[in-house]
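User: Structure with 6-O-phosphono-beta-D-glucopyranose, tokens only please.
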Amino acid sequence: MDLFPRNFLWGGAIAANQVEGAWREDGKGVSTSDMQPQGVFGPVVERQPGDSYIKDIAIDFYHRYPQDIALFAEMGFTCLRLSIAWTRIFPDGDEEQPNEAGLAYYDRLLDELARYGIQPLITLSHYDMPWALVKNYGGWGNRQLIALFERYARTLFIRYQQKVKLWLTFNEINMSLHAPLTGLGLEGQPDKTAVYQAIHHQMVASARAVKACHEIIPDGRIGNMLLGGLTYPLSAKPDDVLAALQENRRWLFFGDVQVRGRYPGYMLRYFREQGIRLHITEEDNAALQHSVDFISFSYYMSGCATADKKKAQTLRGNILSMIPNPHLTSSEWGWQIDPIGLRILLNMLWDRYQKPLFIVENGLGARDKLEAGNVINDDYRIRYLNDHLIQIREALQDGVEVMGYTSWGPVDLVSASKAEFSKRYGFIYVDQNEQGNGSLERYRKKSFHWYRDVISSRGATLQR
Ligand code: BG6
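Assistant:
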């Protein structure tokens, strides 16, 4: 049996706003995530004194990180993907000086990871940005955010240059097409021009962060982060095949710009036909030349596309609203499970870009049952992860360069889309319910022991 490479990074991925809690501690500012306490697809809530929401405490990782990191180390993690909350460093996003208490917090956290030899992979912005930038600047619609983001990124690179060598710019940058407030800080129902202009600013900011990282941390590597929205044609009809090509290009466009440094022809055609005119400067074009070192992505599911308008109306209510594939089964939340799709996606991205790939999110959201003795028999999760890891190994055999794998939510956390707690992803169970009641105690699930064995055997324990 082929083993995973020795330098393959193994671990898990978390995001500040889904684990930390402590939403106003140590000078933290209010973020877009704080203003959408019911999740990415929930409303903006004007908070009243005394209001409290599940994300305000989340799993209290802000205070309990030593315990969680010790558990990650017990599983043999060599990598932890985490995000920094922009609002802990620049509470309103436009201060001249960073908040020292916020910087010091992440210093302590990074030192704890170093104690166990766990390499951090840091996302600069994972589904949160200072709310003040939305209110006072109009979010990413405003070109000034490029410079404000660059200041934030440079502050982190300078401060943590000895401690962090792997970075990501924006989480699932293509999600902004589906959630413009979370992704771009655009309120209301922005039109296509407003959305793509804001996306342009964000991609320039991402490229400027790449440049800054290369200047400040010469031995560092920085990647982009895409939601891998793999789409198949619903049938072999050429019209459906074309529909799938176009659907895939809706998200690959982001990778094309971040890797190749220019807008692809198919996108220029789309802008022309839609009457979208973007304001792009020569300076922007120069910045975009700073290509990412590697490509990271999330992968949970695949979907289908068709040119048949009648069938297209059978859209499902999952994050990407894809058309279901009749050959696949789904999770409890209706996300279609497709391990082979991960091999296809890895090969597709490798063929297209020839840059190292990193799977930085993958996992199964499910309801777990806490049994007597604090036991959780999550065989369904083991099966899901096992089958996806097998396909990564296949892709490695295909010659794809894969840097590592960080499964989503190694410890249970608050879900992003609807801020649910009953949808759990972890190897570690957190005693907390949907109403925010629980001891927050941590328990090892069956998958905890399984993942530890997979890592220590470099995949030899995976089952075909
Ligand atoms: C990705 C996000 O979209 O999917 C994560 O990067 C998110 O933040 C994950 O948690 C799973 O989605 P959900 O809605 O089940 O939390």
